[in-house]
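Design a sequence for this backbone.
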């Protein structure tokens, strides 16, 4: 514990150590919090309600403030109910008053009644963060600096649209690792559509025109999602599909019979039955797609339909890659002839309790048999997020070595007996999925991704001493997040030479998990194994910074509302683990920062949310004070790297120098700041 001052920060010139825990998909819904708090107060016994009001009056004599503070006092985590317009100074004062009230209720042994009523109200309203709370962790959060943190829309690098674009794991981890806002590729693509350069994109045109000149066809893949900011837009955006259709059928004048589309159904980042039902969109995504294709007399361009669990598997399960591949190359799937037939299959899947993500493979026959990709065709992948396109891309270009390596790292062995060797596709992807695809397999990239220059990990070797190591830990289903994404879109070989990385294989077929839709089978996932590894790493003292991801709230949260009990179990295990890790961290001289990449599990739906998350700072000893700033009591995900740097004793002047060199034209509100004084 030597080297720390009473405010929890390293003393001048000394090194500190810190643990960062990213609880994936764990946000809070401010509207639900306030609505349910009123229910809790209404159901208190007269004696407890009287105590609550008396203590609130003593803590806050003003009638309006007294009402607000009364509601805050019955929340499990006070910061979730703070008025977002409060200044840092006023928020700090309010939190101190709530602690006074809660201490009084504890002395009167009335907190247990409040907690019991809160859990019952939460269950009735299916609000998992209250129903599955861990009182020990809630108390730790309330006693330490905890700040609501923006995790969606423009604050995570997306377009400024209404409703805002929901947060997601990819951009969330990029922002967490960055010293300033990390702009996202869909914003760049949308800007290119606006200025017209999209329609002149050299890489797309080379793939398309090369195939046409050779007498081949154009195939493309798109996840049906992202009509608005609030209904997906995590992997794809509908305006990108509209622009591509305009390019193909209007500007290039390609006959629809030369074009084949794979439509992937979402049901995970978009509504569970969004293919058929979505608010404000007649007929759901399939209806909107049919209208779009009809505009170009191209309805018969629809060739294949499949759920994303099969088509976008990122954990390298061979049975899923095989199904996706053979659907497009051999027409293997349920063969139908029309959009109505597709709708009937999707509807039957919904009736069986499945979401869009698990709709089986469907092949369209427009009169000459099921459509197939042929050797020499072009294949354009319009989905911009990389991690869920790697398996598909590697399969289509025959990257056996790549697939074998990735599968083996997850404890899987592939047979490859289904893969052709002569496809020789002219492949163009919307964004870069892996630099190896370009370097070894000739894949073209329409919108190249460049690493973020203001990433903390990318400057680690400059900011720390030669013996300072950091460690990244995650289970395999989130390996790219606590790796490529948190490094600022860098593969390991592009990053620091002083990084260690531990990946725990996620549950697979042997545990009954055949796709992401099966994670409810073991809802805690690898939470305990990761906690054990992190605890052991802290015990060695070998790492100045450790960062880990706990995946269960997000992965099981995507299975709501069907798997409510499993999602509650995932949440409960996660927050209990946080409580355990906080004790291990302090015992080993580590500060601890807990945040989330985006919201998800707090809403009783499979999609991500636009809700804020919480960031909590637990110093290695003593306590920390909130930063003394004007403006609302709120943080951004790109404030976290500054906070970590301060906790481990990195010179703020060196951080400022790096920011000065690489900030470019970023406005001041998009520059990160430490949340501690």
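Sequence:
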């Amino acid at each position: 514990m030597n080297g720390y001052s009473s405010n929890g920060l390293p003393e001048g010139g000394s090194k500190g150590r810190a643990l960062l825990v990213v609880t994936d998909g764990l946000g809070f819904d401010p509207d639900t919090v306030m609505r349910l708090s009123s229910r809790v107060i209404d159901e208190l016994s007269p004696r407890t309600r009287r105590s609550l009001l008396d203590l609130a009056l003593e803590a806050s004599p003003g009638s309006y403030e007294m009402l607000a503070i009364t509601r805050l006092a019955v929340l499990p985590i006070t910061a979730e109910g703070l008025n977002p317009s409060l200044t840092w100074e006023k928020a700090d004062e309010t939190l101190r008053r709530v602690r006074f009230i809660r201490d009084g209720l504890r002395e009167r042994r009335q907190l247990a009644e409040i907690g019991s009523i809160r859990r019952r109200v939460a269950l009735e309203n299916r609000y998992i963060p209250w129903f599955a709370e861990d009182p020990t962790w809630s108390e730790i959060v309330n006693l330490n600096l905890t700040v609501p943190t923006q995790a969606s829309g423009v604050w995570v690098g997306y377009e400024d649209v209404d409703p805002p674009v929901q947060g997601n794991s990819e951009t969330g981890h990029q922002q967490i690792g960055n010293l300033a806002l990390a702009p996202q590729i869909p914003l760049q693509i949308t800007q290119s559509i606006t200025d017209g350069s999209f329609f002149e994109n050299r890489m797309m045109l080379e793939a398309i025109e090369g195939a046409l000149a050779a007498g081949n066809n154009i195939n493309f893949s798109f996840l049906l999602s992202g009509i608005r900011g609030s209904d997906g837009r995590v992997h794809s955006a509908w305006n990108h599909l509209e622009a591509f259709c305009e390019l193909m059928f209007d500007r290039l004048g390609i006959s629809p019979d030369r074009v084949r589309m794979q439509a992937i159904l979402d049901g995970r980042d978009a509504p569970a039955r969004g293919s058929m039902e979505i608010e404000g969109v007649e007929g759901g995504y399939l209806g909107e797609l049919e209208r779009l294709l009809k505009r170009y007399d191209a309805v018969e361009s629809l060739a294949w339909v499949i759920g994303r669990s099969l088509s976008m598997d990122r954990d390298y399960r061979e049975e899923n890659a095989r199904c996706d591949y053979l659907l497009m190359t051999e027409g293997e799937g349920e063969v139908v002839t029309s959009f109505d037939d597709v709708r009937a299959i999707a509807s039957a899947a919904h009736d069986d309790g499945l979401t869009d993500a698990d709709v089986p493979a469907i092949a369209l026959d427009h009169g000459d048999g099921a459509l197939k990709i042929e050797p020499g065709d072009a294949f354009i992948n319009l989905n911009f997020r990389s991690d869920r396109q790697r398996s598909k891309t590697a399969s289509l270009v025959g990257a056996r070595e790549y697939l074998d390596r990735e599968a083996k790292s997850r404890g899987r062995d592939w047979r490859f007996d289904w893969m052709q060797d002569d496809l020789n596709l002219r492949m163009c992807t919307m964004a870069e999925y892996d630099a190896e695809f370009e370097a070894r397999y000739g894949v073209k990239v329409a919108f190249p991704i460049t690493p973020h220059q203001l990433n903390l990990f990318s400057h680690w070797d400059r900011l720390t001493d030669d013996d300072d190591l950091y460690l990244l830990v995650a289970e395999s289903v989130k390996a790219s997040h606590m790796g490529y994404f948190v490094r600022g879109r860098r593969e390991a070989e592009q990053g620091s030479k002083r990084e260690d990385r531990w990946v725990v294989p996620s549950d697979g077929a042997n545990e009954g998990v055949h796709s992401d839709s099966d994670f409810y089978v073991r809802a805690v996932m690898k939470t305990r194994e990761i906690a054990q590894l992190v605890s052991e790493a802290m015990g060695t003292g070998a790492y100045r910074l450790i960062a880990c991801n706990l995946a269960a709230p997000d992965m099981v949260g995507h299975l709501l509302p069907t798997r409510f009990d499993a999602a509650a179990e995932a949440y409960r295990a996660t927050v209990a683990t946080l409580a355990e890790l906080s004790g291990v961290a302090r015992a080993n001289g580590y500060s601890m920062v807990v945040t989330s990449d985006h919201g998800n599990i707090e809403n009783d739906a499979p999609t991500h949310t636009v809700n804020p998350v919480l960031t909590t700072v637990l110093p290695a000893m003593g306590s920390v004070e909130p930063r003394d700033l004007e403006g609302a009591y709120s943080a951004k995900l790109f404030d976290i790297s500054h906070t970590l740097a301060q906790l481990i004793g990195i010179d703020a002047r060196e951080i400022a120098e790096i920011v000065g060199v690489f900030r470019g034209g970023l406005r001041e509100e998009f520059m990160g700041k430490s949340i501690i004084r």
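The two ends are 20 Å apart (CA to CA).
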